[in-house]
Design goal:
Low-confidence stretches: 23-38, 117-157
Distance between the termini: 44 Å
Organism: Ectocarpus siliculosus
InterPro entries: MAM33, MAM33_sf
Oligomer: single chain
Number of strands: 7
Order of helices and strands: HHHHHEEEHHEEEEHH
GO cellular component, one term: mitochondrial matrix
CATH architecture of one domain: Roll
Number of helices: 9
Pfam family, one: MAM33
Largest sheet: 7 strands, mixed
CATH class of one domain: Alpha Beta
Mean pLDDT: 76
Protein name: Mitochondrial glycoprotein
Length: 260
Amino acid sequence: MLANLARAAARPSAGLVRRAAAATTKCSSPSVPAAAVSSAPKNLRCASSLSEVLKAEIEEERLVAFDEDVASMVKELGKKGITVKDEPGLSLVRLFGPGVGDEKVSVEFDCDVEGDGDDGWEDDLEDDSDLSLESGEQQQGKGGEGQEDEGGEDDMIGPGYRFTATITKGAKKMVLSGSATDTIAVHGIRINPANVEWDFSLYRGPDFNELDPDLQDALYDYLKERNIDDDLAAFICMYADQKEQNEYTNWLGEVAKFVK
């Protein structure tokens, strides 16, 4: 698992590579004689050109091999009783696994949300968090630092894939927001009634970084016992990258079908 973690930290995401390439290169179309271009109706030429570009892009993306490390990490999680819920066409990924005692734990992350300081990401995940608890349980994590936002829960959280983890015990649940890079970074923790999805009137807890360092360490140890640690960070980064690549390739295919 440590080797996988190191690879996840060192490897740029497919989405970042794609965006960087788009920013530094110009798309070019096959050279077509002017006479041939002028003789075809303009709308047909555009459709033909778009279809050709899409076809070339799809073929290029399909050359990206499936990451075997991701498959092996899913198997490792399965040994811990952790399952992955991943529906094609959706960017949200959910993990369910056992907590301690009768706890239920879940983790949610979006393959399309990489840490850039956007507002509202946690609100979107929180809307679905109780759905995760219907069947499941959770995963692992530990980490570094983060910042909490007085309005959402994170304003500028730095790089990494953002996630929400929920630990439910009896009538209460602990909801934490964090980000995953080569480590888990917790940004905020709050305690809510188990049946409440989101209520802005509830106290959201302090900025995690403002807590006493000993308390922070103790909380990270608590989370690690529930499989919320740096191994989880490695998994989130690698799985989100693979998921985004798959969804992008599928999206290209859907666009190609639509413009055919």
